[in-house]
Amino acid sequence: MRIKRTAVALAALSFLTGIAASPQVVARAFTAHDLVMLDRVSDPQLSPDGQVLVYTLRETDWDANRGRTGLWRLALGAPDAQPERLTAAGSNASSPRWSADGKWLYFLSNRSGNNQLWRLGAGPGEAQQATKLPFEVRNFALAPDGRQLVVALDVYVDCADLACTKKRLDERAANKASGMHFDGLFIRHWDEWSDGRRSQLFIAGLDANGIATGEPRRLTRDISGDVPSRPFGGDEEYAFSTDGRTLYFGVRIPGDKEPWSTNFDVYAVATDDESAPRNLTAGNPAWDAFPLPSRDGRKLYYLAMRRPGFESDRYAIMELDLASGKVREVAPDWDRSAGRLKLSVDGRTLYTTADDMGEHPLLAVDIATGRVKRVAAGGNVSDFSIAGQRLVFVRDSLQSPAQLYELAANGQATALTDLNAARLKDVSFGESENFESKGWNGERAHGYVVKPYDFEPDHKYPVAFLIHGGPQGSWVNDFHYRWNPQTYAGAGFAVVVIDFHGSTGYGQAFTDSISTHWGDRPLEDLQKGWAAALARFPFLAGDRACALGASYGGYMVNWIAGNWAAPESGAWKCLVQHDGVFDNRMMAYSTEELWFTQWENGGTPWQNSANFERFNPVNHVGDWKVPMLVVQGGLDFRIPAEQGIATFTALQWRGIPSEFLYFPDENHWVLRPQNSVQWHDTVERWLRKWTSP
User: Fold this and answer.
1) Residue 319 lies inside a defined structural domain of this protein
2) What's the pLDDT score for residue 21?
3) Residues 6 or more apart whose Cβ sits within 8 Å of residue 561
4) Per-residue pLDDT, 10
């Protein structure tokens, strides 16, 4: 890997545009194997003085059928510096975090058998193991004074010490009986069965050598919920105060209503005594999360939703005065949902990201005025770091996998990496073009078309009509590792996508409009958007088109099968349904996060049965005609496997050409490299079978 610091404004790098580096190089198609083998950069961390950047790089081990993560270092102060590998290949390393003085880099690694905390000095030397705990460390945070750290561990909350949890786990492993007994929900979540443990925060002292000593003390001892949250919560959900004497964290107290509740609150707990955690946001019955102390320690910033039970409400940026308890919204006129917050060095600006009109830019929010400004536009900014005089971020787009960039004071972004240059040097990506159409209620729906990689204006191309999930999601300008339009463009298909009502990035009212309307408003947007695309782009072969989608997109494919089998250009040639809802009512009784299905259908199945049946695909199986490929993950507890099996059963029962691709070892997503290639190969073969002239 080599450095190529090129100003973005000059031009895209040749390997990202498909322009041949020399006359001898012939452009080729982008393939699924290319996709899974790409190196992926994440979690950039600037040293406190801003001079050194450390980041995580995921590389693919094809033979092992998995990704492996390692840490890399780049000295930003040296003009000709090259990235250096910090951690050895063969074991995983992730979550790099600098000590406040910049002398040490802490990180997680499984080199000792499971994830523990390790540290490296700023200069040459071997890594030292900083924790030797009986359980895997999920994530961690360092205290500002460098004398303490907090770790997240999975334990039984009624245990007084770690030994108690270890004893129970050992006893369970020794017991030959396999039955699991429950007296409440969740019994399973995302892709794991519950074993009764909760993620909890523990604080431990660090000795003069930076090594954790003694038995860590549980800070969340009176909290029965998961801190951080499951399944995806990390260290963004808790933070030390500036003086290190307080830890702020977000949590949902489950009680007996955890699957129905989105009532997360922000708590504060003293790190130097035995006092109980205090709820700072008890007045809000909806979601409060991601605490961030101000530079002077007087304020606490966090994100908050307003409506309980709704997971896709707008995340507003809130400011809590810790002395008075007064709360205000920082940017009340900004109609977008904020992501993770980070402070500028002077403490006057909050940086965040948000879906916005088909992009996911980096934004600066002036704390005093609430004014929001784009500071890194174009594409998808997935993470960023601020230190010293530097701001570094990760950005990808439809034409480029993720790269690291530095933002200059004048707003110019400079590429710090050219990852995957060798692998993609002769690849030609399909060009994209945005368009709009009038959808439901006469309101605009945005979309884009991606042309085949070898596009010829006078040629007619078969079409992959992709439908996003969520449903509160968006087809942003990003380089997706599961549903990437470039894999279809590389296979010779044109791609059409529509951000229908319910999509994010167009204002909260637009997002809200899909709830209790899964089958009418989005369908109208898709129908009108499809017609607009056919009218605007003559190279689309509308009579050779297939519709594909996963999750809500899979639901919509099932809905299309019974309600839109014959668009204006002729019938869909085929459909692809991945982990989609087949029976809306049964889905409500078998999924895990019940707040979602309850909100989206306006109540429970027994209270509002008409809503569950109004847009239920199972009621329209008699109208199904179009061939369909069904894909399902066996570990998908969000959309349980029976939904996919039932879809395939209905197709076979009706005598409709159909196939079923089942992954017993995948969840809601297909993540393993070889499984991903099998998925793409199967889908491509299915599309070609039905769209060939």
Assistant:
1) yes
2) 40
3) 575, 617, 620, 623, 624, 625, 626, 628
4) 29
Whole-Å CA distances, 457 to 436, 452, 492:
21, 10, 13
Residues 306 and 442 in one domain: no
pLDDT in tens, 398-450: 999 999 999 998 889 999 999 999 999 999 999 999 999 999 999 999 999 99
> What does the alpha-carbon distance between residue 660 and residue 12 come to, in Å, rounded to a whole number?
41
Q: Do the beta carbons of residue 134 and residue 212 sit within 8 Å?
A: no
Which domain, by its residues, includes 151? 131-170+180-329
- Evaluate the CA torsion angle 625, 631, 637, 642 in order and state its sign: positive
Residue 70 lies in a domain: no
User: Could you give the number of structural domains in the chain?
Assistant: 2
Q: Are residues 483 and 621 in the same domain?
A: yes
Q: For residue 104, what are the β-bridge partners?
A: 121
In-domain check, residue 671 = yes
Amino acid in position 606: W
Q: Please check whether residue 504 lies inside any domain of the structure.
A: yes
**Of all helices (H) and strands (E), which one includes residue 28?**
none
We report the CATH number of the domain holding residue 578 as: 3.40.50.1820
One-letter amino acid for residue 415 of the chain: A
pLDDT of residue 124: 67
For the purposes of burial, counting CB atoms within 10 Å of the CB of 461, is it exposed (0-12), middle (13-18) or buried (19 or more)? buried
Which among 283, 304, 329 is the end of a domain? 329
Per-residue DSSP letters for 338-390? ----EE-TTSSEEEEE--BTTBB-EEEEETTT--EEEEE-SSEEEEEEEETTE
* E strand or H helix at 287: none
Of 329, 347, 370, which residue is a domain's last?
A: 329
d(CA 89, CA 111) in angstroms, rounded, equals: 10
Q: Report the pLDDT value the prediction gives residue 326, as an integer from 0 to 100.
A: 98
Element (H, E) at 445: strand 444-450
- Residue among 420, 403, 415, 431 at smallest CA distance from 17: 431
Q: List, for the chain, all residue ranges whose pLDDT scores fall below the cut of 50.
A: 1-23
Per-residue pLDDT of 304-353, as tens digits, reads 999 999 999 999 999 999 999 999 999 999 999 999 999 999 999 999 99
Strands, DSSP E only, in 40-147?
40-46, 52-61, 66-75, 84-85, 93-98, 104-109, 116-121, 128-129, 140-142
- Smallest Cα–Cα separation from 502: which of 610, 608, 615? 615
d(CA 353, CA 347): 18
DSSP 484: -
Residue-wise DSSP of 118-177: EEEESSS---EE----SS----EEE-TTSSEEEEEEEE-TT-SSHHHHHHHHHHHHH---
Angle subtended at Cα 441 by Cα 439 and Cα 446, rounded to the nearest 5 degrees: 30
Mark whether 584 and 442 lie in a shared domain.
Answer: yes
Tell me the C-alpha distance between 197 and 162, whole Å. Answer: 12
Two structure tokens written together for 107: 């990180």
The DSSP symbol for 455 reads: -
Indicate the helix (H) or strand (E) that contains 686: helix 673-691
